[in-house]
């Protein structure tokens, strides 16, 4: 803080002699990627909670367009509609994922890869599928549907 007139500072305005205090540069990058810090096109949505996430300095984290659209499409899946794990369970779950992502596939935003259905116990199932982000040059992504 520069010195003010006499021995007291002159309020919050710059007055007096000395070097101005400098603070850190404000975070000017909107929607930063949590790993690279580069700006992104959408808000990061936590797939498990559905909530936005924030950086340590309080800014909203970002994620690119297609991963955000995939998270939103998966939130529309109602897994409670699958009541029993019959002989077609794996095929049915893969079909549900394909249907949820159908509009994104039709618009050319992504290409769906293999869907692997895992059965950790007799009463549960989860799907791991890979997809390719066409807006990011075909970058491979992997998502788990719990």
Sheet with the most strands, sense and barrel status:
3 strands, antiparallel
Oligomer: single chain
Number of strands: 5
Low-pLDDT sequence parts: none
What portion of the residues fall into strands of 2 or more residues? 15-25%
The CATH topology of the domain at 64-145: SH3 type barrels
Task: Figure out the total of helices.
Answer: 3
- The Cα radius of gyration reads 25 Å
Q: By helix and strand content, what is the structural category?
A: alpha+beta
Shape: elongated
Q: Approximately how much helix is present in the residues?
A: 10-25%
What report would you give on this structure?
The chain is of the alpha+beta class and 146 residues long. The protein has a domain at 64-145: Roll (SH3 type barrels), CATH 2.30.30. 19% of the residues lie in helices and 19% in strands. It contains three helices and five strands; from the N terminus they run ββαααβββ. The protein has helices at 65-75, 89-100, 102-106, and strands spanning 42-43, 62-63, 110-118, 126-133, 139-145. Strands 3-4-5 form a three-stranded antiparallel beta sheet. A two-stranded antiparallel sheet has the order 1-2. A hairpin with a 7-residue loop joins β3 (110-118) and β4 (126-133). The chain is elongated, with a radius of gyration of 25 Å. 11% of the residues are buried.
Tell me the layout of helices and strands.
Layout (H helix, E strand, L loop, with lengths): L41 E2 L18 E2 L1 H11 L13 H12 L1 H5 L3 E9 L7 E8 L5 E7 L1
For the structure shown, list the relevant keywords.
single chain; 146 residues; alpha+beta; SH3 type barrels; elongated
